[in-house]
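Appendix B, record 7
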Amino acid sequence: MRRNLRVAAYAVCVRDGQLLLARSPTPDGTSEWVLPGGGMEHGEDPYDTVRREVTEETGYRIDVTGLLGVDSRRFVGGPRVGRRVDHQALRIFYAGEITGGELRPEVGGSTDFAAWHDLAAVPGLVRVRMVDVGLRLWRERPPHGRLADRPEATA
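Structure tokens (predicted):
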């Protein structure tokens, strides 16, 4: 079985009661909302990753204002190219504050649109579970950086 580890950094940017999200198309033609962020490049610091990814996906520049926490998920998937994959996602969540730039969609990347959403409307959005994890870390600010009752592993 092939093993894969993906380390990624995400920003929870809340301003005036709204959360910044990016829209990610799925293979079946639908879309899901995600926190802006993504995978670390080899040799890159996660702090730099989250700043780069937010700019790529939303057009905004951010200051990282805090480390919210870390979430680790393991997924064992079915056959892909004839073999199973054991995937671990290590996700680092930061609080971010917009300091410049202009909201715009990503071109040629993993997302196709970015927008602000009222916090109260987020539960009604089609979103990946990682959005909920990031928002809980932002709201609860656990001192150890880990949610006590983590949601089940799905994306």
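Remarks on this record: The longest strand covers residues 60-80. The domain at 2-140 is CATH 3.90.79.10 (Nucleoside Triphosphate Pyrophosphohydrolase).
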